[in-house]
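Re: Re: token formats

Sure, here are both.
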Amino acid sequence: MIDLAVAVVVGAAFTAVVNSLVKDLITPLVAALIGKPDFSKLGFTLNRSHFAVGDFVNALITFLLDALVIYYFIVVPLRLAAERFDRSEPVLAQKTCPECMSEIPQDARRCKFCTAVLR
């Protein structure tokens, strides 16, 4: 339970940092490239309804940065660690016992279920 609480707090703090990064650094750079002073105000009006495209792009960039960081700093290292410490045995080739029709290893000389001698 404590691990989950810590994860929520750290995730919220990280999201606040990414929001600030996008709002204060990335979108001003994009706004400078397209010639607008405030990217978050970028939008259009259609039939007296305002569509805030800049806010949507800010949220999209924030989501993508969050997803990339979580994937590359949490998911990938945990998967690599799990593969490294995986102690599962390799799967042996199987054959069918002619007497009891059970699946047994390919190199077996006697069936472990019916004890029939195999040739």
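Second one below.
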Amino acid sequence: MYYYYPDYFDSFRCVGGVKCPDSCCHIWQITVDKKTLKKYNKVKGELGRRMRKKIDKKTGNIVPHGKENRCEFLNDDNLCDIVLQLGENYLCHTCHTHPRHEEVYHNVRERSLAITCPIVCKELLMRESHVTIQIKKDNKIDFFDRYFDNSLYAQLSYIRDNMLSIVQDRQFAIFKRMALILVISHYIQRHINKRQSRLRKSFINKIFSSYPDFLPVEKKDIEKTLTTYSKMSIHMTDKITTGFVKRSLTDMIFTLCTMEPLKNTWLPYLNSIINIRTQMEDEEYNICQKEFNREITDIQLEQLLFYFVYLYCCTATYDGFLLAKIKMAVANTLLIRELWFMRWLEDNKVLSVDTLTEMAHWFVREVENSDENLEQWDSLMQRNPRFSLEILIKICSYFNYL
């Protein structure tokens, strides 16, 4: 078995309590696994009675309370009564592992730390050095579903390694890097859709270099890709207006309003910034964006983009939609940047690391802490014209030349 994980994975420690600016024990549904539920059934005293009363015996769901659906066992100090009275060994699987996340593939486990945790998010945004992906191996063998596409996963893993290298190539502006991985994923998606035979002969892992047995059309695709990487076409900006970018990003923010809100302040906040944006003049928006561009660094956006590409890319093994996964990584990064921009305007053009953390982790929490929301978000990337490849590349070009 192979284990992939970012280099900061093992160093994470939950601070808990009042030291944490947010708690992972509210807003979303917590389900106790069957093994832990059996242990809870043997707990005596007042805590045991609460467990039997507040945990559904059939589903294992903990009955939440309050406006923010706080876990029954989260006390007023934001500490867990189960841990305080019984110790960490009595936590259910979800609570014991969060914010650690694991994607399961045949003989591979890809691990990450979710930036839905504000502590993880803040440390990532403050980091200036490159994140590296570590690999460990043990002697375990995973007997996975026989229909698992090992060939596609191997190709996607190779593609992701190359894309992560591009994401971290700081000789180019971050928005050029975004455009490049979008273009590359578009070319590769064409071959996933139409050239399955070439896919299984390991065609995709060659797209980052050149080989003599490429067809003329394939050589042309690769030439275009590498040209985009080395020098973005300046003439593209002639067709891009500030109004177009402002409206496009506003439309993307509006799509967030169509999903189930986890925090009751999320929709009101989105509606308020949409109203502010619609009242802004295009020239004012452009001037403010130029000023804001000096407030944040490419490295902060790079860390977010790296996180999303690492997390999403290989999940295309299950549905074949690589382009949608990369579009989602880029769109997430652009939208978080836009939420930072709006908050910066609201706070009289002051931006702290804590504010960056708050908005980034809030966005990701709303999208990723609901399976329904994440599935809808993925579907929007596949089909909704608001997230078309052309629009995303134009937005990247606009910000690149601010």
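The longest strand covers residues 100-105. Residues 197-201, 210-214, 232-238 have pLDDT under 50 and may be disordered.
- S.
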